[in-house]
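Aim 2 progress update. The chain analyzed this quarter is reproduced below.
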Amino acid sequence: MKFKDFTRIVIKVGSSTLTYENGKPNLRRIEQLCRVVSDLKNRDIEVIIVSSGAVAVGVNRLRLPCRPSDTKGKQAAAAVGQCDLMSIYDRNFAEYGYVSAQILLNRDVIEHEDRKQNVINTFRALLDFGAVPIVNENDSVSVEEIVFGDNDNLSAIVAALVEAQGLIILTDIDGYYDDDPRENPDARIIHSLDAITDEMIEAAGGNGTNRGTGGMRTKLEAARFAGQHGIETVIMSGDNPKKIFDLFDGHSVGTHIKVK
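Predicted structure tokens:
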């Protein structure tokens, strides 16, 4: 199957896509994303969003001079920022007649079979009701994402939980390159991959921006996990969410990690 044939997808959107350098929400881009998702739903495509950005928005909302370095400060910023983000999502989806739903996950929830099944049941019910689930790790009480983790891998886990066919990772770069394009102007984008190797992950580097926790490394890890569960992944720029339409119209966008 190709993306144009998929009926259930997960879209992961990073902090660098959702916010400006100063941490304030990029309202135009969020509006575009919500419009695209709403139109996909009009095509009877079920969409789950895994959204970062809570800490970045919270830092701005609290008028902090910089991102806190201590865990409790990051958790407080996440608690404030998550409210702001969900309010923006809710208003925008309501414009197109859709209801958004917040799901905050901790890693221990999906590591216990009974709790995991409860999460799956909630997703199924929300999708049956036509809602747009918006997922984030529960940053205000969980330290895993803030200290160690990322929402790239969370998005792959969610995609596996809901049995999605495709995962779209929106980021601040337009795909996977054979070298770092920020340092090497001759780096070339690779539009299609059949597998993710350990060597590729090791060479991928660290964080992409100072507003997020994940770089290309975590995106490749997520794509590999998704592939192991039969889910195809596209890594693409989030600068113009309308390009998601190109993907569903059968065009090549970003880097497509296929499933054999």
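The mean pLDDT is 89. The first strand starts at residue 8 and ends at 13. These observations will guide the mutagenesis experiments scheduled for the next reporting period.
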